[in-house]
Amino acid sequence: MTTRRPFVLGLTGSIGMGKSTVAAMFAEAGVPVFDADAEVRRLQGPGGVLLPKIEAAFPGTTGAAGVDRQLLGAAVFGDDAALARLEGIVHPAVRASRAAFLEAHGADPLVVFDIPLLFETGGVTDVDAVAVVSAPADVQRARVLARPGMTPEKLAAILARQMPDADKRARADHLIDTGTSHEETRAAVRALVEKLTGPLASPPLAGA
Q1: Domain span at 106
Q2: CATH number of the domain that 86 lies in?
Q3: In principle, which of 24, 51, 62, 118 could form an S-S bond with 12, CB 3.0–4.6 Å?
Q4: If you count DSSP H runs as helices and E runs as strands, how many of each does the chain have, helices first?
């Protein structure tokens, strides 16, 4: 007998490209979405399971309210070794949460893994296809610099740690343009959902 599991679509895109907006559009279309950033916030929030490990590695960066994101950010900013230590704590926990999410939605034809650093962290091996959210560079820059506390220097540092948009686009199975109107982007998302939830779209798993 052959069973099926959901088709797993990895959703990614560089900062300011509109990925969160697109993820919300998938959710509106009835597709379960695993939000990696939201899961990290939960794991690092009040009572989060990662707090003891983070506190041990970066003393003084956690408290009753969870991780102090500003202090933790300052502890790892510009320090590759410190960032690697933090990622070594966070990434395995997020992968475990993602596996549980997939199991919980085993009956759905399609699920989305919303992972900002999908390519950079090797998460692409865990998905069946990748959708890259993109917009023109000037639109991206304007969006990011409009955020509170953002500076051109911070943006440059963030972009230096992300795969260039052109490379992501080249590796994408599907492109979602957010440089257009919300209506056009939403229509593109719905069309992709319909394409990926067809009768032959979900990858089979052989079983007895």
Answers
A1: 2-200
A2: 3.40.50.300
A3: 118
A4: 9, 9
